[in-house]
Amino acid sequence: MPLGSWWCFVPICAGVCMTLGMMSCMSFNSLLFCPHRAAKRLQQPRPVSCFLGLYFGLLVCLILTVTQWFCLRGRRLEFLHIPKNAGTSVEAAGLASNIYWGAFELSLMGRVVMPDGSKCSAYHAPPSAAPGINTYDRTKVFCITRHPYDRAVSEYKYLLSDDAYWADFYAAVFDNGLYDYPACTKEGLNHFITNVMIKYKQGQRYIDDCHHVSQTEYIWAHDGSQLCTNIVRTDDLPDKFDALMISHGYGVRMGNPVNAADPCDVSANSLTPQTRLLLNEVYEDDFRLLNYSKY
Q1: Residue 174 sits in the same domain as residue 83
Q2: The three-state (H, E, C) secondary structure of 111-152, written as one string
Q3: Range of 60's domain?
Q4: Mean pLDDT computed over every residue of the chain
Q5: Which of 31, 48, 72 is the last residue of a domain?
Q6: Is the Cα torsion angle 144, 138, 217, 203 positive or negative in sign?
Q7: Of 7, 52, 198, 231, whose CB has the highest number of CB atoms within 10 Å?
Q8: Do 138 and 183 belong to one domain?
Q9: What is the mean pLDDT of the segment spanning 151-178?
Q10: What is the mean pLDDT of residues 117-144?
Q11: In this structure, is residue 1 part of a structural domain?
Q12: Between residues 137 and 260, which one has the greater pLDDT?
């Protein structure tokens, strides 16, 4: 249990002691003041006592559950998964310590319908566009951000890797241009990014499982409130991530990155000036609010 939550054991122990005390008082009261009647009852089946035992057992469970909810909500860390920003690595690190973030969080399983009609994995959906998701309420939220150029290139390379078995489906459904040019080429990279950015500007913001949504849409709500207050850059991994875990009393540590396979010899340096201008326009808020430089 994270540091800062140990005090939750105080009301838990108090609830257990109160329940045991009440049960003991009931038994000793009968033995002390009505010994003959108590002795007679002890020799007979006592269904009422069984129900009382069940009642107090449920009471203890209720006390534990409510205490857990009030104590740990607002103190535990919740991971907000922004696609293509080392999210799988964070989730794998959490799972190794029996902490279920992102894809492993029960409340974030399944898919949600987005404003443009696309369907996204719930753990990929920005909370501001999916109000039915309340996993992040009353928690300390952390997230990972990445330079918009590198993030766009990473998406292209990822869809061409063996891990993205759904790439063919997305290419057909969303007509994202992934296979219009030879794979892993400068021409293919710039065509793909240009195609999806044009669709993004036309209102298809949530295609490809929300992988192109601006990072600021995850971090800030429509009313301007900041949901993710603990921001770690991919450039600072794993050190800043591990430091965040230590500061909150978590034993989670990030090992080698997951999804690190690199099937393509392309990078942000492969982007044409026209593609960069388009990324600058679409992700203007990411550059400005997250302090990334355009080049």
Answers
A1: yes
A2: EEECCCCCEEEHHHCCHHHCCCCCCCCCCEEEEEECCHHHHH
A3: 6-72
A4: 84
A5: 72
A6: positive
A7: 231
A8: yes
A9: 95
A10: 91
A11: no
A12: 137
